[in-house]
Write a structure and sequence with these properties.
The chain has 25 helices and 17 strands. The protein has 612 residues and is of the alpha+beta class. A six-stranded mixed beta sheet has the order 2-1-6-3-4-5.
Length: 612
Amino acid sequence: MFGWTGNILRINLSNRTHKIETFGEEFAKKWVGGRGFALKTLWDELKPGIDPLGPENKFIVAVGPIAGIPAPNTGKTVVAAKSPLTGGYGDGNLGTRVTEHIRKAGYDMIIVEGQSDRPVYLYIENEKIEYLPAEEIWGKGTYDTHNWLYKKYGKGVGLLSIGQGGENLNLYSMVRSLEGRAGGRPGIGAVMGSKKLKAIVIKGSKPIPVADPDGMRKLGLDDLRKVGEIDKKTGWSIQGTTGVLAWCNEVAALPVHNMRKTHHPDAWKIDGERLNKARVATYGCPNCTMRCGITILDHEGRQSELDYENIGMLGSNLDIFELDQVASLNYLCDDYGLDTISAGAVLAFYADAIEQGAVEGNFQFGDAEMAKKLLGLAAKRESEVGNLLADGTLRMARRIGHNSEAYAMQVKGLEISAYNCKFCPGMALAFGTSPIGAHHKESWVITFELNQTQRDSYGPEKAAKVIELQRIRGGLFEFIVACRFPWIELGWPLEHYTEYFNKVTGLKWALDDFWKVSDRIYSLMKFFWVREFPDWDRTRDYPPMVWFDPKNADTEGPIAGKILELEKYNQLLDHFYQQRGWDKRGIPTRRTAEVLDLKEEAAEVEKFTKLE
């Protein structure tokens, strides 16, 4: 079997034991890797209702068959677990040297289970597994943690770590690697923290199993050069993802003031042009020739790597328009190990709730210095306020009451990323149906919606586009595993990834073969949610109610007086469900399960709810 090592490393932290398990070609072809492997493992091994922060949960690191090979942007790894933030399936991907080293160590997936009785970190070198004391770095931020581990093992190793956020079980803490690289928005860092696992260091020295190694190496290196040339020609890396900020402000889709506003006259102060002018360094993931990690000096003089989501959620959404202050908030999130999107949303919701008189507090929009203090409280769960902020917007709203859940900007418990959809039905649907909670990475449909269709349309073409992008972005790129930027930003054709996959595995797949795997994964993710929440109904696929509230409509600008319409959104959701082969509740039907080879999984779901 080429393309996969066929090995899974299973580690139990409770008794400090490990074993190597194997899988065959049938499993590999059905789930491919990355998200597919992680999802299927969590489905098979977790009992419904287990505590995400208990020893029964699994922390999974998984890669795919083209991950780590020399080809455009293949330096990605998936981290996954049952989410402590949402209670459903949770994952994320991040650029890291772990990608290459896990494969060279001889594994396609690492499953960490149990709980250590004291802080540890893992050192993995091929078959050698060491459980090492982490007391010296427990309590430290990710920057100090990385420096300590790099000093010991060298900067070339693969490294995943958590900061104080993960240690103290902040529910939107994530996993860090490299400079500004992080993944696992739905609290995957808290799962590591619950296991007292501070870090994983991995080093491999074996060859990655490739069917045509010479051909793949030549093709991959040629294509890396070509992607780099396209990037230079287009100039995309000059602003990277932050180039979208000015556009979002222009089309009234920018998050401002807890997404109550959609544009702001000072947005130019934190846009991509200003960021590029302030640049002091640029970083990227392994195997990347279009590096987007633009780094500037923050208010305190530290290097902070920014992208659009950071700036949108920690900047405009908090009414903070000093770029160096936004960089400071971003640096703290990275050091504490907090998801920047959720952190920005939590702070904005807190300021909004205070403004609405729903809760007492001394924080207001635009106050960067207080925002820094609050991030520290949330990361360390210090004080009543810190505990409140550490639980995410949905739990905050349910504690605060006073109808504040209506403006808690989340779906399924995961905070919405930096696109304000009060009048973007298609993007609202993408957030509503994202299988881990609201996340733009699953289906970034907003440019299609605003550039190629009527903005006020709720027609089936928008549902179809959301599904198409989910198949590519949340499917293909999450299970092969690779970064989507060459395709989405530079127009690098998807057929290249089929070619890489076939050269690596020796198979002869076409794109349609990948789409069936994508659909299988999306249906099983929904089954995972339904098994955890047997009272499932379509309202769990709704965006926040404030986007449907006429009182929240813009009073000026390009969408003045316009909002989402709930009846029409339900029609759009019906289009989505019908095209996916799901029922009116948003649950895959028996027929769909049969077509996608999920009959056993459907039978399991039938124990909790009736399938149509």
